[in-house]
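Students often ask why inverse folding is considered easier than folding. One informal answer: many sequences map to the same fold, so there is more than one right answer. In these notes we will look at a single instance of the problem. The structure comes first.
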């Protein structure tokens, strides 16, 4: 009888341990799922319309095209043979399973800030996904950049491994926001200007950058920052819904909203806003005044083509047709995005909050380079905007690049 009782007690203890282990596994997987969303892993590792996380999406860089790897756990073409230690080394040091160097197009300079428990949780989540057998194409890089060991010199100069360390002088919300922006969110990958070797320019952190023929705006939200006029609540609204009274997300940012930020906890979005509002910019010198003839021509084109949605004073219809007056995209010193939207049009991201996307038509078929430059100049120089003039040669060059199409 005593043996039976002891057996039952031992069995109950064992069952409890198994249930606890399962609960811990579930918690790790859920944590990993959330961090995978926070890092927008699906955006980079999924070509449009193809299997999630199976890789082979082409990333255009100034040095050539890099194809993202398969991060499902297929044993031949994915991570099926990778251990947790292998995955940690990739995230923390930028090293593949075989020890070869990964290219920093994979944002390990940001992921290195993630602690081991977060990285292990992502590994646990990815291991639950359906494995997909899909071999990626060879990267299209010139010699000697096609030799991975060349990245060692880049790492010695620009890469500093190490997990995020909270600032004891800042609030818990600020530190959480800093971790998300600088770590898994890797926001400076798009929003920071790069030097000739593809590393972030010192002193230009989150002040705007260019990639894949788009100009990402300044997202510093303190004094003189690109989002200075945005409140914390408006930053949260934009990240959660893809729109606010100032702007709407499209293009690459639409992927960030769709795959990542709309799924994040409200507290984390508020933490990101707290951090961004603490980042200050620098006062910009007034741009050269555009020629009167260009402004007159641009005003006429705007009246004919733009006022129906954006209104004659550029105020737009907030949360439907974004205001142009005071817009960070419009005032960006780099006019690439303004030119491209005029040429190709744009489509606001559909989200859980706003499932019906809004679309701006393209005008590249209708307006020539001089006309696109004139209306862009007018918009960037009216209603208190200080974006500056746009030259027809800038339009011509971008039109040509877009005509070449994606790789």
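Output (designed amino acids):
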């Amino acid at each position: 009888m005593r043996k039976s009782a002891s057996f039952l007690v031992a069995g109950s203890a064992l069952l409890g341990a198994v249930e606890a282990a399962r609960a811990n596994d579930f918690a790790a997987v859920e944590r990993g799922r959330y961090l995978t969303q926070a890092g927008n892993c699906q955006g980079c590792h999924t070509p449009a319309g193809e299997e999630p996380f199976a890789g082979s999406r082409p990333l255009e860089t100034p040095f050539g095209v890099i194809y993202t790897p398969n991060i499902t756990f297929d044993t031949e073409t994915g991570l099926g043979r990778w251990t947790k230690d292998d995955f940690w080394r990739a995230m923390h040091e930028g090293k593949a399973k075989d020890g070869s160097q990964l290219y920093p197009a994979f944002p390990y300079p940001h992921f290195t800030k993630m602690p081991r428990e977060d990285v292990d949780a992502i590994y646990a989540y990815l291991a639950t996904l359906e494995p997909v057998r899909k071999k990626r194409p060879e990267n299209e890089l010139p010699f000697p950049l096609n030799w991975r060991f060349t990245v060692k010199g880049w790492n010695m100069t620009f890469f500093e491994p190490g997990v995020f360390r909270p600032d004891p002088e800042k609030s818990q919300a600020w530190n959480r926001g800093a971790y998300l922006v600088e770590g898994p969110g890797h926001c400076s990958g798009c929003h920071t200007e790069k030097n000739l070797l593809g590393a972030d320019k010192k002193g230009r952190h989150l002040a705007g950058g260019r990639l894949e023929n788009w100009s990402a705006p300044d997202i510093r939200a303190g004094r003189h920052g690109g989002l200075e006029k945005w409140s914390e609540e408006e930053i949260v609204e934009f990240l959660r819904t893809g729109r606010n009274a100032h702007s709407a997300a499209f293009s690459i940012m639409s992927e960030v909203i769709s795959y990542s930020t709309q799924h994040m906890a409200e507290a984390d979005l508020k933490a990101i806003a707290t951090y961004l509002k603490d980042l200050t910019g620098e006062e910009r010198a007034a741009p050269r005044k555009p020629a009167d003839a260009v402004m007159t021509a641009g005003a006429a084109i705007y009246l004919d083509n733009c006022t129906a949605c954006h209104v004659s004073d550029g105020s737009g219809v907030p949360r439907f047709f974004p205001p142009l007056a005071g817009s960070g995209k419009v005032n960006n010193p780099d006019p690439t995005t303004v030119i491209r939207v005029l040429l190709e049009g744009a489509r606001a991201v559909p989200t859980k909050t706003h499932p019906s996307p809004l679309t701006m038509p393209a005008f590249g078929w209708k307006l020539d380079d001089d006309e696109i430059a004139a209306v862009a100049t007018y918009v960037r120089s009216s209603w208190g905007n200080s974006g500056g003039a746009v030259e027809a040669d800038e339009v011509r060059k971008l039109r040509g690049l877009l005509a070449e199409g994606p790789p």
